Every structure is written in structure tokens, then in C-alpha cells.
Backbone:
């Protein structure tokens, strides 16, 4: 079964169930996304992917909205540009996006001016949580995309160590009563780190090297290997700088892991390297 | 799920309170044996335990009511009993303003400082409480906090207050004076237990319909309700059957009164015709739009009518279970409806209903906990299910996938009240009242600068001026009227001839929303009023989506600069840009409407 949709004036057929984002990707139309990930259920909270759909009073999130037969989608209208730009300005003016991949490019593309709201505006600035040797949580960099919550919960880990707490601008990702992570239910699978789009969750190794000014992505190599701790066969991507493993990810499209690992695959190298 | 709990144990009163709600624990992993080890792990909770997640909010209420806050030990015990991860439960508890996860005084007063109450004694009340009890939230025995609109705007100033304990006390009262409020908080008196429920209800024309029993029927008596014609509509509906009822609702062209003006018949038909299986009826009594109090007046004074109307809805769409979701600040309405439900059940008018072959329908009351957003229907589902009250992206629509993922009919209190007349006199006859596109009667909530604030009923077609005249006219010289509440907009004195119909309002670029009509005279400080509205949306945003979470904050900041003479010249453009993004890109109606009042005030020149 296929449905016919029109994107920016061009008709196209797509499989039933495809999202607008799937359609846009198929047409090589660049679409910013922050809260979307191929390995997580869409939560459509960031709204940076919005598009115009004929007949809809408001814009719709491309990442979660399923394409319907006859749908007419526009991605480059003034309304779309305005909302994407303003969402980026909202985020840039309240959150530290300095290490978030792609965001600077989108800011340029949409001509976002993150200073326009004035100098003394509310931000989510707060101290970094360094509570163990494996990873840090810097919620001054958190855009509240819910990805870590999903990865920790039903979408991967089923541990539910973290959740969104509070409400509105004060909402944050938190353990129960903001307890220290080592005292929480966290099992250090690191799956939340793997999905975080802004660097708010970061390997301690990367965090320390960035602080010391020694973090250098251009000097890193990535080696794919199969995790040897058990027989499941998880695929690992080892990031190596100066002969030392500095972080471990897993490919999102890997059919065993979908990007998710356990503490041994994610952090076992800490012990190997000593 | 591997449930890892906190090491903290509940106190005896906490355990007793939770057991009082959930029953005694059945097995050791459900909490029969105290476990305190940090590594305590509970085996898979099983689907039965997981299905009890919907008891999370009632359980949190129970703790809050019993001990005045939600401690680690108390939360942990609920999590153990319901198999909910503590982080998740903490996320839910911190979502609601009436729940506290920090130790708090047992006696607590929430003082309304919203737009109808400010300028009518709210600030004086706050000043007195601060002088007596110290800064907000800090008193040891008794304390206070500011609150958004408490739905008692007709007798400002209003307060909601409670004392935690084995027998918790909750009251909502207006007009409230600091002396009696302090005496109550200090337990020197309990005489506020009969709130001033005599509502100002009136009509510009002959023949009240929605309000006809208010003040004449005895709210606590099924017999009295029957004497006033009660349960004739259900009798008719049971006799004719669901199809007839739905056909009449369709013929009435009744539009929803909760704000979105959606055709009721379309929803009823859609839920009724959904594939076989569970489906639900929900009455939305969250009524938190600033300036709105009509649903409270209906529920406090004519509760059986709502019970009957919900039962007709259940019969029509084939639902066996109904929920009444009522805001937590309406203790008296909650109690009144609760009594009505009990009496109806005892009389065989709920539960197994022995009419025309018999059918099943029952109603459970769910109490909100201080969150305007939970009036949004999909947020309401999440709230009942025990999740954070965050709206869901639509589609899917509630009629396809609503509460617990099942087809769900959600209607406002006033919408459901109309169903009784529709059934009794027929949809066609009902539609003869009002205008072509806005049929039937409508309630308006008049407060602010009018001589006689209250709930007023009109057949659709009355103008803004008619409605204000019915309430004794504006006190002072009219500067602007806020139509539709904080989510609505200001209208200038030159446009009070606008008919308050759905189509008339739409043509004028307005929305009548929940029926708020709040005139302000020329003495008003509109900077102050609009800043309060901006603060309301910032406080009440669920925080889920970026345009609203950050947009309501940025809007408040820009408006503060604009109205505090710190303007940099960019504010007007900023406010417009923020508004457009919130309207276009937010998930739900809160973000979509968060700037209407502010932009309209600017447009009318009220801020310059
Ligand atoms: C932020 C927000 C708050 C709402 N609050 C209420 C409310 O308190 N009561 C209500 O009936 N509808 C409220 N609504 C509208 C509901 O989502 C829904 O449309 C309504 O309950 C449907 O009933 P009706 O068709 O009978 O009007 C609210 C909507 C939004 C976006
Ligand atoms: S490391 Fe794993 S268990 Fe810990 S918070 Fe992240 S996803 Fe959850
Ligand atoms: S910590 Fe990262 S993944 Fe989690 S919500 Fe914040 S930005 Fe998203
Ligand atoms: S618009 Fe506001 S209230 Fe609605 S989902 Fe978004 S953040 Fe929550
Ligand atoms: S990527 Fe679509 S809403 Fe975030
Ligand atoms: S009760 Fe105070 S504004 Fe409504």
C-alpha cells in the first residue's frame, strides 16, 4: 500500500505508515530534528522539524506525523522558517548549545539571533552533576528532548532511573528527589548518553578532556568491533584518541543493539585500560 | 521491569493512609514485609500491578491530605504498592502545584491573586498572611501561597485552604477575609465549613434552562431532584435506546461548551460506532480558565443533573465506566457530586441499572491537583492514567484513542447539562433556541468591574452589551472587556455590540471560550493585568514543547520590559514573533492561545 503526498509542489508516492520526515528524507530535503531518533518512539516536543500541511490550522511535526493520502506539505514557507528560527532562538537563548552537533549550522540557515530577547533572560544554567567516574550530567545543556528518559525506559533499558520532573520552564530531567545517580536505579548502561543530542550527558573521559582542552575529534579514529563480554553480539564503535578509548557508541541501525548497550560494552574499556 | 526502590520507609500514618486507599498489601513484594535494604529489588510486578498505575494520583493525594507532603518514604511505599519506578512517580508528584515533595506546614492557604481578585482584596489578604505567617511557603504550622484563579471570581477575593491530618479538611471560600482565614488555619474555628454557595444566577430573558433548578432543588437529595423532573431524561433514553439519543444530540447541533466548540453529536456517534470493546465517558470539570466558574455553580447546586447526563452519555456510546475529572480546588463541588453519585448508585441509577433490559454504567471521581493544563483533554487522560499531565499530539483523536488508549467521549459539564433538555424535548426543538450555528442556551461568567457578578444564562444571540447589562452594567467607565478568559482576548468599548455566538465571535476574531466576560474600567492598570496573564501561562505550561515552555517565559520577560518602562524598542516585534511561533508550533491549545490577550491589549492601546 502506498499513499500519494505532495511535497513543495512535487507529488510523490510513499509507503503506508511513512512519516512526513521519512518522505522529506527520501527527497533529500534537509530537515532539522532534535528530539527525534530512529531508535526511539517520537515524542515530538522540540518542534524544530515543523512543516506546513494544507488544511491544518497549525504547523505539524514532520517526525511523528504519518503521511496521509493527498496530503500537501510545504517545508520552506515563511511560517515554517519563522517557527524553526524562533524555536532555535528559544533554545539558543536558554540552553548552552555549544557542543550540540548540527545546531550551529541550522542557526545560520534559519538566521537565528539568540541574543534578541535581551541580556537578562532566564536560562537553565546550573552546575554540572559529576557524581561518578563514568558519565556526567550537565543540564545547563539540556533541551528537554525526553530522549534519555525514553532510552532509560520502555524504548530500551526498562530501568526508569530518570524522568522529567517539575513543570514548565522549571522542568528538568531528574532521579527521584534528585538523588545522586549512584544511589538511584541507574545501571550505567550509558544508553542515555548515546541518544543525547546536546552533550548534556557526556562520558566522563570526554568531559575531562574538554575541560583540559585535549579533546580533539579530528585526531580520533573510530573502530567497529563486536563486544566480547558476552555472546549477544553487540556492535561497538570505539572512539580512540592517542591510543586511548575515549568513548563507546553503538550504531543506531545495528539490528542487535539499535544503538543501545549495557554497562560492560559501554564502560568495560575503563577497566581494560585501567 | 526491575523495580529499584528507595531505602526510605514510610511512617505509620503514611502507610495507613496509602493502605486506606489501596487496601492492605497482598504479598511481600507488594509491601507486606518492610524492606529497607538499598539493593532491594522487586521482581516483575505483573500486568495486574502495572494496571494499577492509574491509582498513582489518588495515592499521592492521600499522602498529601494525611501528612501534608509527599516524603521519600511515603512516595517509596506508593511505588512499591503500585509497581511504579520512584523517578517516574517523583516526576508526576512534582508536576502538580497542590502536591509538595518538600516538608510543608499542615495548614496551607492558596490565595488567588489572579485577574478578578487582584484589585479586589487579594493583595491585602496576601499582605496580612505574610505579616502573620511569614513569607510564602515558610510558616511551620500554617503557611500560604499565591494561586491562579480558583473559580470563585464572582465574590473576590478567593482562597482554597486545607489542613492535613487523619481527617483532612479542605475548603474553598470567597469572599475571604484574613481574620477568619487565619483563625481557620490555626484551628480556632471550623465555621467556614458551609461555604457561601448561594450563587448569583440570572437570565436576561424569561425561562432559565441550564440554571432552572439552581437554588430550588436540594443538591443533596435525589428525591428533590426527582420532584424537579429529574431522571425523566434517562427514562426516555433507556426506553428509546442509544441510536435515538445520538440522533437527537446530532439534530440539536449542540457545540461543546468547554472551549473548542466541537459538535457533540459527531463525537458521540464516533465513540458509539467504534469497534467493540471498552470505551469511556469523561466529564471535564477541571474548570481552570481564569474567570470561569459556571461548572462549579452547576455541580454545587444541581449535581444529580450531571450524574444523569453522564449516564445518558454512557448509555448512548456504550461505555460502562465514566470519570468525572474535577479540579482539586473545588472541594465542595467534589463532595456534592460524590454524595449524588452514592445516592444514585443506592437507588439503582448507577452500577447495574435496571432500565429497559438493564445496562451498566458507573462514575468515578478523579481529583486534579493544581494544573490548568489537565483540562486539555489528552493531558486529562494522562493525568487519570497516572502520568504527568502532558498533552498528547493529535491525531489520534480521543474518540479513536483516548483514556487507556480506548475510544473516549470527553464533554464539558455545561455541554452535558444541555443533553437533558435535548433528550426531553428533542434535538429539533432544542435547536430552535439560539442562532442557526449556535443552538441552545449559554452560560456566561461575569466578574470584574460589573455591578452584580455571577453566572448568567442567555439563549445564544445576546450581545456582549446585553450580557454586561444583565449583570447590572459596568462599574465606572468601560476600558475593555476580556472575553474568553486568559486564553481569550480584550475587546474595546466600541465593539460591545458583538453577538456572543460562536460564529459572531469568530467573525470578530474572538473566541467565547468558556464564556468568560470580564469588563475592566478605566481605573485598571492593564500592565499589571497582562503581566498576571503572562505569568499564568508561564506557570501553567506543562513544559513539554519548546515553543510554549520557552515562549511563555520570553513573552513574560518582554511584556515586563514593555510595561515597566524598561522597553528597548524591540518588545512589540518580539511579542509578535513569539506569539506566532507559539500559535503555529506548540503542541496544544495552551501554547496556541497564550498570547491572544496580551496582543489584543497591545492592539487596543491599553498598554501605552
Ligand atoms: C489548556 C486547556 C485547558 C482546557 N481546560 C478545559 C476545562 O477546564 N474544561 C473543559 O471542559 N474543557 C477544557 N479544555 C477543552 C478540552 O480540551 C476539550 O475540548 C473539552 O473538554 C471537550 O468538551 P466539549 O466538547 O464538551 O467542550 C481545555 C483546553 C485546553 C487547551
Ligand atoms: S545510564 Fe542507563 S540506566 Fe542509567 S540513566 Fe542512563 S539509560 Fe538509565
Ligand atoms: S539530557 Fe540530553 S537526552 Fe536528556 S532530555 Fe536533556 S538534551 Fe535530551
Ligand atoms: S503547548 Fe504548552 S502546555 Fe501544551 S504541550 Fe506544549 S508546553 Fe505543554
Ligand atoms: S524532531 Fe520533530 S518535534 Fe523534535
Ligand atoms: S477566583 Fe480569583 S480570579 Fe477567579
Residues:
Amino acid at each position: 500500500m502506498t499513499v500519494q503526498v505532495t511535497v513543495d509542489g512535487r507529488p510523490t508516492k510513499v509507503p503506508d505508515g511513512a512519516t512526513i520526515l521519512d518522505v522529506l528524507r527520501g527527497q533529500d530535503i534537509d530537515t532539522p530534528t532534535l528530539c527525534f531518533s530512529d531508535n526511539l518512539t517520537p515524542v515530538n516536543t522540540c518542534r524544530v522539524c515543523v512543516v506546513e500541511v494544507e488544511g491544518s490550522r497549525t504547523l505539524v511535526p514532520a517526525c511523528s506525523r504519518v503521511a496521509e493520502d493527498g496530503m500537501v506539505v510545504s517545508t520552506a514557507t515563511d511560517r515554517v522558517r519563522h517557527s524553526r528560527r524562533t524555536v532555535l532562538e528559544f533554545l539558543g537563548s536558554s540552553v548552552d548549545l555549544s557542543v550540540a552537533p548540527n545546531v550551529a549550522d541550522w542557526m545560520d540557515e534559519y538566521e537565528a539571533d539568540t541574543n534578541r530577547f535581551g541580556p537578562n533572560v532566564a536560562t537553565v544554567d546550573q552546575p554540572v552533576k559529576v557524581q561518578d567516574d563514568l558519565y556526567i550530567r550537565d543540564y545547563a545543556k539540556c533541551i528537554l528532548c525526553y530522549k534519555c528518559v525514553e532510552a532509560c525506559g520502555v524504548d530500551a533499558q526498562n530501568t526508569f532511573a530518570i524522568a522529567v520532573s517539575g513543570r514548565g520552564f522549571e522542568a528538568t530531567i531528574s532521579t527521584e528527589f534528585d538523588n545522586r545517580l549512584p544511589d538511584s536505579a541507574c545501571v550505567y548502561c550509558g544508553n542515555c548518553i548515546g541518544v543525547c543530542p546536546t552533550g548534556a550527558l557526556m562520558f566522563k573521559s570526554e568531559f575531562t578532556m574538554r575541560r583540559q582542552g585535549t579533546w580533539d575529534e579530528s585526531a580520533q579514529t573510530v573502530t567497529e568491533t563486536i563486544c566480547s563480554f558476552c555472546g549477544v553480539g553487540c556492535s561497538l564503535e570505539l572512539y580512540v584518541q592517542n591510543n586511548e578509548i575515549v568513548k563507546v557508541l553503538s550504531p543506531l541501525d545495528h539490528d542487535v543493539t539499535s544503538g543501545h548497550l549495557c554497562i560492560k560494552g559501554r564502560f568495560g574499556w575503563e577497566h581494560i585500560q585501567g | 521491569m526491575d523495580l529499584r526502590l528507595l531505602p526510605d520507609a514510610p511512617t505509620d500514618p503514611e502507610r495507613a493512609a496509602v493502605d486506606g486507599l489501596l487496601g492492605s498489601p497482598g504479598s511481600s513484594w507488594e509491601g507486606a514485609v518492610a524492606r529497607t535494604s538499598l539493593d532491594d529489588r522487586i521482581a516483575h510486578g505483573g500486568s495486574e500491578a502495572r494496571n494499577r498505575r492509574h491509582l498513582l494520583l489518588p495515592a499521592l493525594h492521600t499522602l498529601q491530605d494525611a501528612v501534608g507532603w509527599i516524603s521519600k518514604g511515603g512516595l517509596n511505599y506508593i511505588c512499591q504498592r503500585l509497581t511504579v519506578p520512584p523517578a517516574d512517580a517523583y516526576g508526576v508528584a512534582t508536576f502538580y502545584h497542590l502536591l509538595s515533595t518538600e516538608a510543608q506546614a499542615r495548614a496551607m492557604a492558596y490565595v488567588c491573586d489572579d485577574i478578578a481578585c487582584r484589585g479586589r482584596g487579594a493583595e491585602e489578604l496576601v499582605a496580612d498572611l505574610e505579616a502573620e505567617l511569614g513569607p510564602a511557603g515558610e510558616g511551620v504550622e500554617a503557611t500560604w501561597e499565591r494561586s491562579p484563579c480558583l473559580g470563585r471570581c464572582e465574590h473576590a477575593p478567593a482562597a482554597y485552604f486545607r489542613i492535613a491530618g487523619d481527617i483532612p479538611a479542605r475548603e474553598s471560600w470567597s469572599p475571604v477575609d484574613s481574620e477568619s482565614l487565619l483563625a481557620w488555619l490555626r484551628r480556632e474555628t471550623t465555621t467556614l465549613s458551609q461555604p457561601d454557595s448561594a450563587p448569583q444566577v440570572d437570565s436576561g430573558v424569561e425561562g432559565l434552562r441550564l440554571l432552572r433548578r439552581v437554588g430550588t432543588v436540594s443538591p443533596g437529595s435525589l428525591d428533590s431532584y426527582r420532584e424537579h423532573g429529574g431522571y425523566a431524561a434517562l427514562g426516555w433514553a433507556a426506553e428509546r435506546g442509544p441510536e435515538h439519543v445520538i440522533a437527537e444530540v446530532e439534530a440539536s447541533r449542540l457545540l461543546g461548551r468547554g472551549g473548542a466548540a466541537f459538535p457533540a453529536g459527531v463525537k458521540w456517534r464516533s465513540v458509539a460506532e467504534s469497534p467493540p470493546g471498552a470505551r469511556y465517558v469523561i466529564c471535564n470539570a477541571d474548570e481552570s480558565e481564569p474567570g470561569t466558574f459556571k461548572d462549579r455553580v452547576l455541580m454545587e447546586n444541581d449535581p444529580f443533573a450531571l450524574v444523569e447526563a453522564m449516564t445518558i452519555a454512557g448509555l448512548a456510546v456504550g461505555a460502562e465506566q465514566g470519570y468525572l475529572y474535577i479540579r482539586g480546588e473545588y472541594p465542595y463541588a467534589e463532595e456534592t457530586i460524590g454524595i449524588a453519585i452514592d445516592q444514585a448508585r443506592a437507588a439503582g441509577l448507577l452500577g447495574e441499572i435496571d432500565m429497559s433490559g438493564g445496562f451498566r454504567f458507573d462514575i468515578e471521581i478523579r481529583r486534579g491537583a493544581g494544573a490548568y493544563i489537565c483540562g486539555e483533554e489528552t493531558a486529562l487522560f494522562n493525568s487519570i492514567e497516572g502520568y504527568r499531565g502532558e498533552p498528547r499530539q493529535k491525531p489520534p483523536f480521543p474518540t479513536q484513542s483516548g483514556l487507556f488508549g480506548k475510544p473516549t467521549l470527553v464533554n464539558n459539564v455545561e455541554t452535558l447539562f444541555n443533553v437533558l433538555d435535548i433528550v426531553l424535548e428533542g434535538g429539533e426543538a432544542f435547536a430552535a433556541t439560539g442562532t442557526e450555528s449556535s443552538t441552545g442556551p449559554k452560560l456566561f461568567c461575569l466578574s470584574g468591574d460589573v455591578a452584580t457578578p455571577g453566572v448568567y444564562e442567555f439563549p445564544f444571540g445576546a450581545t456582549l452589551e446585553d450580557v454586561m447589562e444583565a449583570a447590572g452594567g459596568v462599574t465606572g467607565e468601560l476600558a475593555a472587556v476580556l472575553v474568553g478568559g486568559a486564553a481569550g482576548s480584550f475587546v474595546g468599548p466600541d465593539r460591545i455590540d458583538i453577538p456572543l455566538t460562536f460564529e459572531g465571535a469568530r467573525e470578530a476574531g474572538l473566541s467565547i471560550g468558556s464564556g468568560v466576560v470580564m469588563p475592566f474600567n478605566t481605573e485598571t492598570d492593564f500592565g499589571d493585568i497582562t503581566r498576571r496573564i503572562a505569568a499564568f501561562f508561564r506557570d501553567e505550561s506543562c513544559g513539554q514543547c519548546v515553543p510554549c515552555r520557552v515562549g511563555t517565559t520570553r513573552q513574560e520577560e518582554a511584556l515586563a520590559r514593555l510595561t515597566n518602562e524598561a522597553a528597548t524598542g524591540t518588545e512589540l516585534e518580539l511579542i509578535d514573533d513569539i506569539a506566532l511561533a507559539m500559535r503555529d508550533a506548540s503542541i496544544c491549545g495552551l501554547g496556541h492561545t497564550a498570547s491572544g490577550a496580551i496582543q489584543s491589549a497591545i492592539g487596543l492601546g491599553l498598554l501605552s
